[in-house]
Amino acid sequence: MPDDNNLLDELNERSREVFRRVVESYLESGDPVGSRTLTRSMNERVSAATVRNVMQDLEFLGLLGSPHVSAGRVPTQMGLRLFVDGLLEVRDLDQSDRQKIDETASSNSQDVGGLLDRVSTALSGVTHGASLVLAPKQEAPIKHVEFVNLGADRALVVLVFANGHVENRLFTPPPGQTPASMREAANFLNALAEGRTLSDLRGDITREITTRRQEIDALAHQLVESGLALWDDAGEGSERLIVRGRSNLLSEETSEADLEMIRTLFDDLERKRDIAEFLELTEQGEGVRIFIGSENKLFSLSGSSLVVSPYMNADRKIVGAVGVIGPTRLNYGRIVPIVDYTAQLVGKLISDRN
After folding, report:
1. Can you tell me whether residue 60 is helix, strand or coil?
2. Which CATH number fits domain 142-232: 3.30.390.60, 3.90.1200.10, 3.40.50.720, 1.10.10.10?
């Protein structure tokens, strides 16, 4: 793929204007853009034939595509990437949007989960897309751990923290677990866990497993390791990802193909697949990042875009992320400042509560 900046530099002023207007019209309407329509909005007086030739050149460069024979042009994924990186004009945050997001901070409750749920709902409502909020990991000291067997391939770990917070996390236990082995694993963990955070525990338990391997049976040892793998994961809890507004991706005009793509997206979300990667996407630097189409490795929905930003605690450490997912023709200029502001607000609220 050519370097975006070099490709943009190679376009003359007329090609840039045609390209920008095609993309902006597509993002606004979702419809292919024809040369005659474009001619009427150009800054200079040019013929439809001239505009058509420019669009053909842009198509040859891979920036525009034709969905149907004799139809207008739409931007390709490569074209959208070039537009977002080089031509996107980000608006100032609308006052009414700011007010709706600020209202989520009105409660004095210390319940971080409730706060993030309100933020996710507000973000979905403001953007008319599906919102994603990745909650911070719980770093309070642990008071008690308990395993609950739910079936041959399902188990629950109940974590009680010293600050009164309780988390229930589903996981898949190793084969052959018994109630006795689960009790033994819980007892083993509780002997180590009290007063320590999950982050502290990993090193301690790894050392204890090494020195006391003979003190627990093989199945309990597997269970402890399974729990450790869950806790060590950056996206460790199955309930850490809050999703709101999925109905915003559906409309009466939604085609069968689009419906199937959206079903695929939310199948992925329901499985909470690759949640760790959601946070990793944001950890390569501060600020909003945009993933278009197949660049968005978190989901298998190639026709989607993800606008995501990390939020930080008082120590400027990334602890979570907020984002909006929708079709590739998102109004990026409006969505980017909303996501950016929401991430900053959540970071401040998390820091204040801690």
Report:
1. helix
2. 3.30.390.60
